[in-house]
Amino acid sequence: MLSVENTFRPSWKGWFTGKLLGTLVAAIGAFLFSAVILVFSSETVDPLVVFFGYAFIAIGFYHLSVIANFFVFRVQLSDRGLFTMEGIFRKSQRVLLYSQIQNVETSQTFWEKILKLKHVQISTMSSRSFASNLSKYAFSETDADKIIALVYDQMKSSSEKKMVVERAAKEDANPYPIHAFKVGFTFFAVFVGLWTALAIFLISLTPSIQDFSFMMLTILVALIPAGILWGYNYLELNSIRYYFLKKDFHTQTGFFSRYTKSSPYENIRDILISQSLYIRIVGLGELSLETGKFDDYVSDSDSRSQPYALKLQRSIPALSISDAYSLRDDFFRILKLKTNFLSPSLVEKFPLLNVKPIKKWVGWVIGGVVLWFLVVAQSYFNELSIPPWGIYFAVIICVLLAAKLVHEYAYWKVYYYNASSDILVIRKGVFHRKEIAIPFSKIENIYLDQDVFDRAFGLWDLHFETPTLRSSMEAHIDGLSEKDGMTLRDMLLKQIKQ
C-alpha cells in the first residue's frame, strides 16, 4: 500500500531558482516584443525582432508549464515499486520495480549545495526515460536521502549499506591514489608548449625586438587560461572519492557540483583501461566501469548529461597504469573471475592477417583522391590545366596517406587479444590505447561480419556484445581469416556455455 509518509514532492526552491527566473526573463522579453509592435505598428518591423519575440513567448509558456507540473509531480514508494505521478493536461504514472534497479545516484550543482537540494536518479538497463523523468526535479536533501534509504530498504540492503559506507568513508577512500597534480601539470605544460611553439614560429617569419616582446606577451596571456583550466581540473580530480563496499562500488565526484553513484558488482558488464597520449607520457591511465545504463550522471535539473570537460568523472582517472591494472584485478577477485590467461595467447593462435593495414588504408586513399579532385576540379575546368597549388596539395595528401599507412601498421602490431576461463581481453590503439575486459558471463551475442573492403581482402570481424555501448565500440577483433574467425567464435562460444 502507498503511504503518505512515503510520498515526496519536489522542493519549491528547485522550481523557484530553476524555472521561475527563466519565466520572468521570457515574460520581460515578450513584453518588450509587444511594446516594439505597438510603437512601430505603422512601420515595417525587422523579422529578426519578430522571431525573438515569438521565441520569448514560447519559452515563457514552456517554463510556466514546467512550474505548473511541479505542483502535481510526486514520488511514492510502496512494496510493489517506485511510482511517479505527473502531468496536468496529459497525466502520466510510471512504476519502477526494485528488482530491476541498476544504479542509484544523486547529484548537486554548486547552487543546489548552497540551497541544500539534491537530484535523485534511479535507473535500470531499460528505464532511461524513467530515470530522466525523476531526475528533472530537485528534492530537499532530507527527502532525497529518505528516497534513497527507502529504495535500499526495499532492495534488502539499507542498514547494511549505511554501515559499510560510513566505515569506507573514514578508512578506505581511494585505495589507489589519484594523481591530480600530475595530470593538471602535464596539460598545462602541453598547452603552454604548443602556444609557445606557435609564437616562436610566427616570430621567426619577421624577427625583431618588438616581435620578441610580442611573443613574450603572448606566452604570458596564454598562461592565464591554461592556469584556470589546470586549477579547475585539479580541483575536480582531487575531489574524487571511491570505495569498495560489501556489495557495490561507490563513487563521489565533483568539486563545484557533487555526484554520487553506487553500482552493484554483479551489474558490471565490462571494465575498460584507457590511456590518451598526453597521460601516457606521465605513465597514467583511466579505469572505467560499464553497467549497461545510458546516462551515467545528471548534472542539473534539466537532466542534461555532463559536459565533455567532466568526462573523467564517469570513471576513476589519473591512476598510475600499474594501479589501474591492480584495481581491475581487485574487481576480478570480487567477481570471482579467474585470470589464468592462455599461453600462447589467442592473438598468437589466431593472428590478424597482414593485409588488414592495407584494407584500412585503402579507404583513406579513396577519400584523399576524391578530396583532391573536388578541390582542383573547378580550377582545372576554368584554366584547362592543374594550378601549381594543386601539385602542392597533392604532395600534402600523399604525405598524410603515407603517415596513415605507418599508423595502420603500428596499430596492427600492438593489437592484442586473449582469454582466461572467465574473461576476454582486447587491447588496441597506438596513440590512444584502450584495453577492455569482458566477463564471458556478460556476453549476450557473438557474430562475424564483413564490410565491402573486408570482402575484397578476405577479412572477417568478430564482434562481442554486452548490454553496454562500450562493448559495441571496443569489443571486436578485426582482420581474421574466415577459418580463424569461425574457429575462434566456436571456441569462445563453448567457453561461454561452460
UniProtKB/TrEMBL annotation:
Record field: transmembrane: 20-42, 48-73, 185-206, 212-235, 361-380, 386-406
Keywords of the record: Membrane, Transmembrane, Transmembrane helix
Keyword Membrane applies: yes
Superkingdom of this protein's organism: Archaea
Domain YdbS-like PH: 73-147, 241-314, 412-490
InterPro entries found in the cross-reference section: YdbS-like_PH
Protein name stated in the entry: YdbS-like PH domain-containing protein
